[in-house]
Amino acid sequence: MSSFLPESIQKVIDEFSRLPGIGPKSAQRIAMHLLHSPDMRISQLSKSIAETKEGLNFCVDCFNISESEKCKICLDQSRNKNLFCVVEEILDVIALEKTGQFKGNYHVLHGVLSPVDGIGPNQLKINELKVRIENLINQSVSSEDIEVIIATNPSLEGETTALYLTKILKPLGIKITRIGRGLPAGGDLDYADDVTLTRALQGRLEYS
């Protein structure tokens, strides 16, 4: 019980406890750390948090986070424009980019199919992915030269989403692969180390 704490401190602890990956004890440690931090440090932290969403939006192509209409990855002309890696969340892009192994573009779904939670295809960026590929084909890019790597997490929802993506993309005649060995069942991309993710990318299998 921490009811003896001042209300201002308890509010800070409660707010940190609501963040993913931070339990009550961690929240208490962070609050105590801030309590002993210089005023300037607290001011800078508060300002950074307050400005988190200012000037940010989602890339119009891949739906990664961006400061402009398109993200830095989509604007990078050295990337393979015919190679796509489909991920669930922005954190997955960060994890894969750290490996330095993927040289194509991304497509962030912003979730996975989950009927129990009321999340269907219309709640995700699935149709936008199909349109991106169709636009490439309409630009005289051969469908045989296009590859989509499905890198959703190896969970029930992730596999369901992968199967659905395959169903709607296969008629386009493109190559569809699934991120391969190295990821344990039930594991999340953003928790995997660089070596594991590199092996998963290299060991991808074609989806049929």
Order of helices and strands: HHHEEHEHEHEHEHE
Helix content: 40-55%
Straight-line distance between termini: 55 Å
By CATH, the architecture of the largest domain is named: 3-Layer(aba) Sandwich
Task: Bin the strand percentage.
Answer: 5-15%
Tally of domains: 2
Quickly name the level 1 CATH class of the largest domain.
Answer: Alpha Beta
Number of E strands: 7
Low-confidence stretches: none
Report the major sheet: 5 strands, mixed
- Which value, in Å, is the CA radius of gyration? 20 Å
Spatial strand arrangement across the major sheet: 4-3-5-6-7
Number of helices: 8
Residue-averaged pLDDT: 89
Q: What would the CATH topology of the largest domain be?
A: Dna Topoisomerase Vi A Subunit, Chain: A, domain 2
Notes on the protein architecture:
By secondary structure, the protein is of the alpha/beta class. It has two domains: 7-50, Helicase, Ruva Protein, domain 3 (Orthogonal Bundle); 69-206, 3-Layer(aba) Sandwich (Dna Topoisomerase Vi A Subunit, Chain: A, domain 2). 41% of the residues lie in helices and 13% in strands. It has helices at 7-17, 24-35, 39-50, 72-75, 90-99, 126-138, 156-169, 194-202, and strands at 57-58, 65-66, 80-87, 104-108, 147-150, 175-178, 205-206. The strands form two sheets. Strands 4-3-5-6-7 form a five-stranded mixed β-sheet. Strands 1-2 form a two-stranded antiparallel sheet. Helix 5 (90-99) links the parallel strand 3 (80-87) and strand 4 (104-108). Helix 1 crosses helix 2 and helix 5 crosses helix 8 (194-202). The longest helix is centred in the C-terminal third of the chain and has 14 residues, at 156-169. The mean pLDDT is 89.
